[in-house]
Amino acid sequence: MTSMEKSIIDVKDSKSNAANPWGSPEKRCWGRDLVGLFARCVLASSFIYLGTSKALHPADFLKLLRQYELVHDHVILNFVAIGLPWFEIFCGVLLLAGVWVRGTALMSLFMLVPFSLIVAQRAWNIHEASQIPFCAIKFDCGCGAGEVVICYKLLENAFLVLMGVLLLALRTNRWSLRYSLFRSA
């Protein structure tokens, strides 16, 4: 091997190390993997628990959905009341297993952000109509946890959104079913 070829290889090695500060997957910092595991478990357990509570009582969930007056077609409303809880459970199971983590985290954000905005809007309307302090407003928002103080619910949702954003950004797959299926021996 000539000195020119060696210098080209050295440059390639230095560029690959600069692009990947964690080094090889085996040498990578476990802190990032632990944060990813924590975010997956928190988001998954939340979706599984709240989805199950809605799936077990679909008529109650349907009544709560009607209060938001977002959809006026009863067929679509029934479909949402029956399908959404099972979709939440499915997303929670995927997150817990570590399969399609980034896509599932994105779907969780597509559910959490609009839901949080709708709950905040409903709470603001109650605040305006009855002059109750915003953080004193309590109602059953339809999340599956029963009657909640809205400020706490919005903080909880903001924390879950943060967990979803972390899962999108981290690209960690250690301690997941996908990692154990596809890693090389």
What is the count of helical runs? 7
What is the number of independent domains? 1
Biggest sheet character: 2 strands, antiparallel
Along the chain, the helix and strand elements come as: HHHHHEEHH
Distance between the termini: 31 Å
Q: Say how many strands there are.
A: 2
**Rg from alpha-carbon coordinates:** 22 Å
Q: Which percent range describes the beta-strand content?
A: under 5%
Output mean pLDDT: 84
Please state the overall shape, judged from the principal axes of the Cα atoms. Answer: globular
Uncertain segments of ≥5 residues (pLDDT<50)?
A: none
The chain-level structural class is: mainly alpha
Q: Give the fraction of residues assigned to helices.
A: over 70%
Q: Which strand order spans the largest sheet, edge to edge or round the barrel? A: 1-2
Topology:
Blueprint: H1 3-19, H2 30-56, H3 58-68, H4 74-97, H5 101-130, E1 138-140, E2 147-149, H6 150-170, H7 177-182
Antiparallel strand pairs: 1-2
Helix pairs in contact: 2-4, 2-6, 3-4, 4-5, 5-6
Question: Brief overview, please?
Answer:
The chain is mainly alpha-helical. Helices cover 74% and strands 3% of the residues.
Characterization of the model:
The model has no long low-confidence stretch (mean pLDDT 84). Helix 4 (74-97) crosses helix 5 (101-130). The chain has one domain. A two-stranded antiparallel ribbon has the order 1-2. 74% of the residues lie in helices and 3% in strands. It has 185 residues and is mainly α.
